[in-house]
């Protein structure tokens, strides 16, 4: 269940990156329209006094659909991103900073929108006065209020964006994916941020495949080995792991098991992102009490992190243990 929740969280982060890519394309389209669309707000000789206002209204008519779609996508992407971080947080991944960052980011959006609307109100009301200065002081209030709100919203958004970047960078560290780390950093660098969604999409895809292959990533919380279920009330498990095992570069795994009775090991399978690996040799028997168990797997290189090992016993019991490489 935890692995499915982890995969769900990573997929949500990937959806966020995809929406970010779409938002960038919308921004580029808006910039293109503004460049090819002439704008004249100066009063031309012989033109009616309302001509600049109509020209400004025409411009708003062009850009408002882009802004609305962009705002909706931005809000949706942040909600999905926050949900993804929360899923990873539930499986003990240290990405709480990402949850906080997305929350701040979401809070900043209405503040920025209200500030922008206040400035827009000032422009609409003051445009006729621009033809016959000065602008009445009563119209300056929305402008000042709008600027203050935009500054506050921008500050909140900046803090949120930095925390989101830190959260994404931590995801890259947990799953050993440099593409995610680089993509997280590039999101705030002008022009280079065009590449960031692609890096995040590919990097998160690699992380998903790793988890599906059994890779547990770099642990960021206390590891509690799974215990064997189905015991009778009042009785402890027949066998369980003590602490966390180790896996060295030679493929040798060492761990401690506690057994309530003599038991015989039949097989052990190490789950990696490249597929399961069956132990070539292992300690065959357990005595009552604590036992040091050693097993050897294929020596193919593995990324650093925690891995699951399923041990099967001759009496039909199975136990999943954790080892750190």
Distinctive features:
alpha+beta; 325 residues; single chain; nine-stranded mixed beta sheet; Immunoglobulin-like
Topology summary:
Layout: H1 2-36, H2 51-90, H3 96-131, H4 140-174, H5 178-186, H6 196-212, E1 239-247, E2 252-259, E3 263-272, E4 275-278, E5 281-282, E6 285-286, E7 289-296, E8 306-313, E9 318-324
Helix pairs in contact: 1-2, 1-6, 2-3, 3-4, 4-5, 5-6
Structure description:
By secondary structure, this protein is an alpha+beta fold. It folds into 2 domains: 2-212, no CATH class; 239-324, Immunoglobulins (Immunoglobulin-like). Helices cover 53% and strands 18% of the residues. The chain contains 6 helices and 9 strands. Helix 5 packs antiparallel against helix 6 (196-212). The protein is elongated and about 95 Å long. It starts with a helix and ends with a strand.
Alpha-carbon distance between the two ends: 23 Å
**Structure classification:** alpha+beta
Mean pLDDT: 79
Number of helices: 6
Radius of gyration, whole Å: 29 Å
Q: What is the approximate shape?
A: elongated
Strand content: 15-25%
The total number of structural domains is 2
Poorly predicted ranges (pLDDT <50, ≥5 residues)?
40-44, 219-236
Return the string of H and E elements. HHHHHHEEEEEEEEE
Question: What does the largest sheet look like?
Answer: 9 strands, mixed
The protein's oligomeric status is single chain
């Amino acid at each position: 269940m935890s692995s499915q929740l982890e995969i769900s969280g990573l997929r949500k982060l990937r959806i966020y990156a995809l929406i970010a890519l779409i938002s960038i394309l919308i921004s580029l389209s808006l910039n293109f329209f503004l460049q090819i669309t002439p704008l004249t707000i100066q009063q031309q000789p012989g033109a009616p006094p309302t001509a600049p206002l109509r020209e400004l209204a025409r411009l708003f008519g062009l850009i408002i659909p882009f802004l609305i779609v962009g705002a909706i996508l931005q809000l949706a992407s942040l909600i999905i991103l926050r949900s993804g971080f929360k899923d990873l947080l539930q499986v003990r991944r240290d990405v709480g900073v990402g949850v906080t960052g997305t929350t701040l980011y979401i809070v900043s959006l209405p503040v920025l929108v209200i500030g922008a609307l206040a400035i827009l109100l000032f422009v609409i009301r003051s445009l006729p006065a621009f033809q016959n200065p000065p602008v009445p002081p009563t119209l300056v209030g929305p402008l000042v209020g709008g600027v203050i709100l935009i500054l506050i919203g921008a500050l909140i958004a900046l803090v949120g964006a930095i925390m989101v970047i830190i959260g994404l960078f931590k995801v890259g560290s947990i799953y050993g994916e440099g593409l995610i780390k680089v993509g997280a950093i590039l999101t705030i660098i002008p022009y280079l941020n065009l590449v960031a969604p692609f890096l995040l999409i590919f990097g998160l895809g690699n992380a998903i495949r790793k988890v599906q292959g059994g890779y547990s990533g770099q642990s960021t919380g206390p590891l509690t080995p799974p215990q064997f279920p189905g015991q009778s009330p009042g009785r402890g498990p027949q066998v369980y792991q003590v602490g966390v095992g180790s896996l060295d570069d030679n493929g040798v795994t060492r761990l401690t098991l506690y057994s309530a009775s003599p038991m015989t090991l039949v097989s052990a399978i190490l789950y990696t992102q490249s597929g399961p690996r069956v132990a070539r040799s292992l300690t065959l028997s357990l005595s009552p009490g604590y036992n040091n168990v050693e097993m050897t797997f294929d020596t193919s290189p593995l990324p650093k992190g925690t891995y699951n090992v399923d041990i099967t016993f001759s009496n039909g019991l199975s136990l999943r243990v954790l080892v750190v490489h």
